[in-house]
Amino acid sequence: MIQGKESRDDAHGRLRSISVDPFVRGFDMQLARPLARSIRLNGFATCLRLEQVYWDILGDMAQLNSCSISTLLSHVDREVHLRHGGVRNFSGLVRVVCVVHSLKEAGMDVVDPQWRGERIAPVNE
């Protein structure tokens, strides 16, 4: 439910209809299919399980950076260790990175004002 609140229609617990249907015309359920892939993160072989839509976004991001998905993810892994001492849920971080990238591509301002102007190292193979 939106903002964590459940809205009920009546005493019988039927849900109210929503005004924005998340299943837009042409919605492809294959995008929600989880896919496990073997990747190398900074030289170490590992397996990452993400939904197809995230692999597609990572592919686009890697293409924009002229690198492989493994190189892109190695950069994410390295930067989160340098900046924040690591992360407990790397696949969750990758999903958030993908969402932020997609929002930025759509023209939405998603950067925290305190980080504006910070130079970010380019992704290199």
Write up this protein.
With 125 residues, this protein is of the alpha+beta class. It has one domain: protein bp1543 (Ribbon-helix-helix fold, Orthogonal Bundle), CATH 1.10.3990. The chain is 36% helix and 13% strand. It is built from 3 helices and 2 strands; from the N terminus they run ββααα. It has helices spanning 52-64, 69-84, 90-105; strands at 34-41, 44-51. A two-stranded antiparallel sheet has the order 1-2. Strand 1 and strand 2 (44-51) form a beta hairpin. The protein is globular and about 55 Å long. The N and C termini lie far apart (41 Å). The model is unreliable at 1-5 (pLDDT under 50).
Topology, pairings included?
Elements: E1 34-41, E2 44-51, H1 52-64, H2 69-84, H3 90-105
Antiparallel strand pairs: 1-2
Strand order of the largest sheet: 1-2
Number of domains as seen in the coordinates: 1
Number of helical segments?
Answer: 3
The proportion of strand residues reads 5-15%
Number of strands: 2
Question: Into which percent range does the helicity of residues fall?
Answer: 25-40%
Distance between the termini: 41 Å
The major sheet is characterized as:
2 strands, antiparallel
Order of helices and strands: EEHHH
Uncertain runs with pLDDT below 50, 5 residues or more? 1-5
CATH-assigned homologous superfamily:
protein bp1543
> At the first level of CATH, what is the class?
Mainly Alpha
CATH architecture: Orthogonal Bundle
CATH topology: Ribbon-helix-helix fold
Structural class: alpha+beta
Assembly state: single chain
Radius of gyration: 18 Å
